[in-house]
Each structure stands twice: as C-alpha cells, then as structure tokens.
Design a protein that fits this description.
With 722 residues, the protein is mainly beta. Helix content is 12%, strand content 35%. A six-stranded antiparallel sheet has the order 4-3-5-11-8-9, with no helix packed on it. A six-stranded parallel sheet has the order 30-29-28-27-26-35. Helix 1 (327-339) packs across helix 2, helix 3 runs parallel beside helix 5 and helix 6 (467-479) packs parallel to helix 7. The protein is globular, with a radius of gyration of 28 Å.
C-alpha cells in the first residue's frame, strides 16, 4: 500500500535545514533552531512548529486573533564553538518580541518583518544547555503597525484584499559561530562595474583598529580548471574607533551581472582584532557588478536600455501563509515567473526570505522590493514604517537582483490622501529621503500607484474591464494628454486618481511604467485581458515596463496566472510568455469580448499589425496568418505538410498561411504597421486566427492570435429591482 502524496505546498518538517543567509554565508558553523517548540497560550501549552505563523495549519496551532504567546525550547551552544561567539539569529518575528535565556531578558525587538540577532557571549557558554524563550505580542489591531496585507481587527481600509494574519516566529531561527571580533554588517556595491565598494561594521571584543581583509575568493559561473576565475583580488582595511571600515576592491577583468549572464562574485571578509588576538572571523558575501539607472524617461542596466516585464508576487502559500513550506517551494515561484516570460518580480509589500533573493541573484531575475506598511496614518505609524527602511537596506542591499526599492503602496498608511494632506505628503517624502540617503544606487518609488510627490519612477496601477477604455486611457497616459485614471476602491466607490500628488511635480523627465494591471472574473477572461492589455502597453514607446497582477491566487483573491498550488489555469490556449516576450505583435483592433475578439468574417479580413521589439539589434521579417479551429494553441496546429504551424524556414506562405510585406522593428520603437489579409475561415461558427512573425532567418520571433465568433449582447433576463 502506497501512502498518499502530500498536498503540493504542505509543510515538510522532515526537510533538511538550509542555511538562511546564503548571501552572507557562515554555514560552516551553524545549527538550525527550527522545528518543534512549546508555545504557551491562554489555557495551556501546545507544541508549535517553527518557523510557521501560529495562524497556519503548518504550525500545528491554527489560532487566529491570538495576540500574545510565549515560545520555549532548550538550546545548546555546541562545545566545539569554545573560543568563538555564539550569535542567536531571527529572520522575522511578528510583531514585538522579547527574548530571554534562562529567564534573563537578552533582547527586545519591534518590527514584524525585519531580522535581529543576539550575541550570547556571557549569556550561554559553549557546551551548556539553556532555556530559550521568545515572548511575542501580535496585536489584532494592526492598522498603526507595518503589516502589509495581513487582516486587522478593526478592519483595514483595504480589508477586501487582505489575508489571514501572520503572527509569531515566521522566518528561520538559528545559531551561528563568529570570531571574538567579527564583521556584524557588510555592504558591497558593484554599481561602478569595475569593482566593489565595501563597508564593514565590526563588533565583538575589539572593533576599534580591527584588521579587515576582503578577498575575491570565487566568481560564480567563471570557474576554470585552476579554480575560480576572477579570484585573487584583495584589499586590507583597518576599522576606525567606531569599528567601521570601508574601501574598494578592484576586479581585474570584471564580468557584469545581468539577467542574461547572472555572474556572481564571492567576497570573503576576514576580521582580526588589532594585534591579532583571538581566532579570525570569516564570512562569505555574494555580490554582483551591475548598475541600474534612469536616464531621462528610460531605464538602463549596465549602460544598456532595459524594459521591465514584471509580475506581482505576494508570497503566500495555502497551508503555511507568508512562510514557504520549504526552500525548494520558495524559489520555485521565481522559476514559474520566468516560465511565464517575466524578467522582473515585484515582491508585494513583503520582505521575502533572503534565500529567495539569493536565488534571484543566481538565476538573473530582476526584483522590485518593498516593505509592508501600516494601513492608517499617524505620526507614530509613519515612524514605524520608516524604521524598517535601514534594516531592509542592510539585509538586502547587497543583492544585485534588486533593481527598484518601493516604499508605500497606493497611499496605504497615508489614508489615501497625499494630495489633500501636507502631513501625509511629507511622510512619503521623508520615507523617500530616508531610503535615498541609505542607498543611492537604485531607483526609489515613494508611493507606488499614484499621487507621486518625490520619486525616481512614475508608476501607476490601473484596472479596467473595458478594452476600449483601457486602450484610450493608456494612450492618454503615454502621450501626456491625461494624468488621471479611474480607480475602484470599493464596490460603490470609484475614485479619479492622478499620477501626481502635487502641482509642482515634474510631468516629464522620469521613467513612466505600469506596476499593476489585469482584469477578468474567470481564468479565460483574465487570459483575454492579459493578451490585449499587455499589447496596449507595448504599443507605447514611452513606457519603461509593466507589472501584471498577479503570479498566483491567494486565499479569496483569484487573480493569479497560477492557482494557490502553483498549477496553471485554463487560459484558452494563451501562452503568457508570448505576451511577455522580448518581441511581440501588436494588432490594431479593439476586441469585443473574450472568445470573440471580432465577428466571424464572411469575406476577406485585413488587419494591421506592428512589431514591438525590446532586444538588441533590428528584427526583420514577415507576419504570417492562418485560420485554425477555435481555441487551438499555436503549438498544436500542423500545416498542410504535417509540420508545426510556422515551423518551416521557407519564406513562402504556402500551407503555413498568408504573409505580409516585410516589416522592420528597431529596438524600443514600435514598427510601422503591415497589413495582413486573410480569406474567411469557412463555415465554422467560430475560429482562431494565428499571427506570427517569421524573421529573415526563418525563426519564429513573435506570435499572437485573434478569436472570431458571434458577437452577442449579454443575456440578462429577470425582474430588475430598483
């Protein structure tokens, strides 16, 4: 008898522990504290599985609106760590944590998404076992604390898009050994493209005067027969009286990081106390040489123009909440996004597990990172939001994959009132200035979606079920004839939002991009809107990119390209990667409705088609077209010769459909239209017209389709109530 397969995203308590900070690696001496703890709750003590929030099934507790509990377990510092410092590390605990060892308080931390650590030197000796307690306060009323899309009591203003709360320990807990004098903080920036600027904060026995050596010990992807190519460069620094050391390490033959070539360097930082007392400390830092910058209204990566094709990802799983069931499942979402054709993931109001960011570094996925926000404005709430910024930059600033920092989202935590409140506008500006002072190597968005007051990118969120209105409003935003668009904030509340929160914000000179869009009730409708709305974004050369909402379903929110278990939905034959490709087709057509973009023609049909190309070089070719049975995916149709449709290299349309004149598309410039004329599809009541671009080299460079079917008014019958 075989056992039943587990739910795809159920927690795996038997999974081997994976070091939580591969980008800041001390995995040679560490021990995981994840697993079973005791949890004191009202009424008694229950077992809980860390690091899953106590609301989740995976935790074994499943308690919502529990506001206070205490975790407890035995902890032993390995005897082999004698002579080192044992440091207790927490990935994240929501929201207010008090840490005790053997009843003595050793730390207190406020902030549900930021990491913290406790140096156990003088608290717990090597070889000794003590009792570790973590007392957690997680208020049900979360409106004044950074909580993102966790539901609150009383409710958030955006309760309709909020989810089950995440309370308690929800990211890994571990012990690691460090030297007596050690590097507590290391920042590396490779935006010069020729080397790394390094800043080290030293702690421990003797920070002042510590000698810090930074050496390039590996270059991922550049390993030759004699070891790691690019290794060997080194620099020696001396910490000042405050334990700070900074310098630069040049790379002799720099290899840049990019999505096409995500080359990483490993910089080993070795710290010794002045005079050489005690064993040295070593930590391996991962970094990349890359530069992201805005030049006027365009974005450039490593001096080459880039277009962002992004998807929004909220990082929730059905039985484990904000914590992934295991590391493989965590990083798989990046592969799902890549398979769907995206080159960027906007991790939505969540500081994701560093292992996810490390995988993005390794695989070349670009990331838009942003912290959670409160939901109501007060000076205290704004201050709590800003207090996350420095820990966010310290934790994640080394990742080359992060190319945009976001802050507030749609004025959440600012009462949707930047234009009407100088205090709220000032809070957005202050958050921007705080982040910009900490990191000036990436664009910063102070308030994603609308009402910008100080930003490096003008982004906008726009949802619309009407394809004609969508196309018209997007065109007006692109050419500047309008800066307003409708936003439905509730079923009975339609607001008119502006890109700008003040009259003096510049209307030109900054990159403009969409950062949320999508529409449709069913999966078929959503695929239809994805096809047509994305092509309208690609129609306008002014835009620097887009972010589709969203990668996966979350609880009651069913907008995902994948369901909650990361399974594909029925998209009616649409391949999202065709819409998100480097080269796409743009058809001059306002579609009627899903399944019937236009009526079945009874005579010759002519369509104008453009090419949008965001890759290097010029693309030349001809657009082909052929009728196929309704709903047929491109890859399932065979031409008259038995080959796959569009698969031949001959420039003769023949059995592979008719062809247009030659069209030429330059990078980032929409091509002129070419006319494609096809005969009627025959007697079928519905049909699909496949369109694909065949380059001069015979390769299929882009493809889309148009559905033909009866155009009918909705059948709405019954008594209408007043």
């Amino acid at each position: 008898m075989t056992s039943a397969l587990p739910r795809p995203h159920a927690a795996r308590p038997d999974a081997a522990p994976v070091y939580p900070r591969p980008d800041r690696d001390r995995s040679d001496r560490w021990t995981s504290l994840d697993g079973t703890w005791d949890l004191d709750v009202p009424g008694g003590t229950v077992p809980v599985t860390v690091p899953f929030a106590w609301e989740t099934a995976a935790s074994g507790v499943g308690r919502t609106w529990l506001e206070h509990a205490t975790y407890r377990r035995a902890v032993t510092v390995p005897a082999a760590w004698a002579g080192s410092r044992a440091v207790l590390c927490f990935g994240a605990v929501h929201h207010h944590a008090i840490v005790r060892v053997d009843g003595v308080q050793v730390a207190e931390h406020v902030g549900g998404s930021t990491p913290f650590e406790v140096d156990l030197d003088g608290v717990l000796a090597a070889g000794v076992t003590g009792t570790l307690e973590v007392e957690v306060h997680a208020p049900a009323d979360k409106r004044a604390i950074p909580h993102g899309k966790q539901r609150s009591i009383p409710r958030d203003d955006y309760d309709g898009v909020s989810f089950t709360p995440t309370s308690g320990i929800w990211q890994p807990v571990w012990l690691e050994a460090r030297g007596r004098t050690y590097a507590a903080r290391v920042a590396v920036r490779g935006d010069s493209l020729t080397g790394f600027d390094v800043t080290v904060g030293v702690a421990g026995d003797a920070p002042a005067g510590a000698v810090v050596t930074v050496e390039v010990t590996a270059g991922s992807g550049a390993v030759g027969p004699d070891g790691a190519a690019g290794a060997g460069e080194r620099v020696e620094l001396v910490a000042d009286g405050a334990g700070a050391a900074s310098g630069r390490i040049e790379i002799a033959e720099p290899r840049l990081w990019s999505p096409a070539d995500p080359h990483l360097y490993v910089l080993t930082v070795t710290t010794r106390a002045g005079g050489g007392a005690g064993a040295p400390d070593a930590v391996a830092i991962t970094g990349g040489l890359r530069r992201i910058e805005r030049r006027g209204e365009h974005l450039y990566l490593n001096d080459e123009r880039i277009y962002l094709r992004g998807v929004l990802d909220q990082g929730y799983w059905p039985e484990t909440g904000l914590t992934a069931p295991d590391v493989d499942t965590l990083v798989a979402d990046l592969e799902h996004a890549r398979d769907l054709g995206y080159n960027l993931v906007r991790k939505h109001i969540k500081l994701e597990d560093p292992r996810w960011l490390h995988h993005a570094d390794r695989t070349g996925m670009l990331v838009w990172a942003e912290p959670p926000a409160p939901s109501r404005f007060s000076p205290e709430a704004a201050r709590a939001f800003e207090e996350q910024v420095a820990p966010m930059v310290e934790r994640d600033g080394n990742h080359p994959s992060i190319v945009i920092w976001g802050l507030y989202n749609e004025e959440w935590g600012l009462d949707w009132d930047i234009p009407g409140s100088t205090d709220r506008a000032a809070a957005a500006v202050r958050a921007y200035d705080t982040l910009r002072a900490l990191d000036d190597t990436r664009p910063v968005v102070e308030n994603s979606g609308w009402a910008h007051v100080r930003t490096d990118l003008v982004d906008w969120h726009y949802y619309d079920e009407d394809p004609a209105a969508w196309a018209a409003n997007v065109a007006a935003l692109a050419d500047g004839t309008s800066e307003h668009f409708p936003v439905r904030l509730a079923a009975d509340f339609l607001a008119r939002k502006s890109l700008y929160g003040s009259a003096d914000h510049p209307r030109t000179g900054l990159p403009v991009l969409n950062s949320e869009y999508g529409a449709g009730f069913t999966s078929l409708e959503r695929a239809w809107h994805l096809r047509w709305q994305t092509q309208e974004l690609r129609r306008h050369d002014r835009f620097a990119g887009y972010v589709y909402t969203e990668l996966t379903d979350v609880e009651h929110e069913m907008a995902g390209l994948l369901d909650v278990d990361r399974r594909p939905k029925d998209r009616g034959g649409l391949e999202p990667r065709d819409m998100n490709a480097e080269t796409v087709l743009v058809v001059d057509l306002v579609p009627a409705h899903a399944g019937a973009d236009l009526p079945v023609p009874d005579g010759e049909l002519g369509l104008d088609v453009h090419v949008s190309h965001h890759g290097p070089g010029v693309v030349r070719g001809r657009v082909r077209a052929a009728w196929v049975p309704a709903g047929t995916p491109f890859g399932e149709v065979r031409d008259g010769d038995g080959g796959l449709l569009g698969g031949g290299s001959s420039d003769d349309a023949g059995a592979s459909g008719v062809a247009s004149d030659t069209v030429e598309a330059k990078p980032f410039v929409l091509s002129p239209a070419v006319r494609v004329t096809v005969p009627p599809p025959g007697a079928a009541s519905s049909a699909r017209l496949h369109l694909w671009l065949v380059g001069d080299d015979g390769a299929v460079r882009a493809r889309t389709f148009v559905d033909a079917g009866p155009i009918e008014e909705p059948n709405r019958r019954g008594e209408r109530w007043a």
